Amino acid sequence: MDKNLLITIGRQFGSGGKQIATCLSQMLDIPVYDNELLMEAARSSGLSEELFRRSDEKKRLFSFASAGQSAISEEKLFRIQSEVILSKASQGGAVFVGRAADYVLREQRPISIFISAPLQERIRRVSSRAGLSSAEALDLIRSKDKSRAAFYDFFTDRSWGRADSYDLCVDSSLLGIEQTAVFIRDFCLKAR
To answer: Structural domain boundaries of the chain?
Structure first.
């Protein structure tokens, strides 16, 4: 396996992107980074982890006077997260989930993947995972996808979820989580 392989995963909420990224990292024996990036960004910057969690893949201005900062711009938080992503990528191969990592790592030429699934499949998955009604799951999906799109579109010169922004777009409902991960693994190994 290529231990310097960089893969980024963008995903619709409820498409199984996080689970696919985890399977992929296990198959390739490389780390996967998702929420860990927020903790590392907080540690390296001296800012609170809660600040990064509340801003995660959202576009807006945050004010945390109680944390010792009068106002932290979304651009500054994005820069800090970007530095962590670049640092992790310099250590070797990895799978990065979300956070516009494909854009952040554009000079390293990662293989960028976007995971989607039909809305009804995502509603079923989110309802089951979070114990929500179908209507509640739909509202959550729409909110998360809207936030992710706004974040990605704001910080990149690309469009979230559009095929021409990625190397490969995959519907996870066709093969399921594990077989989608196998398909992506095979694609990545052949593409490099």
So the answer is: 6-191
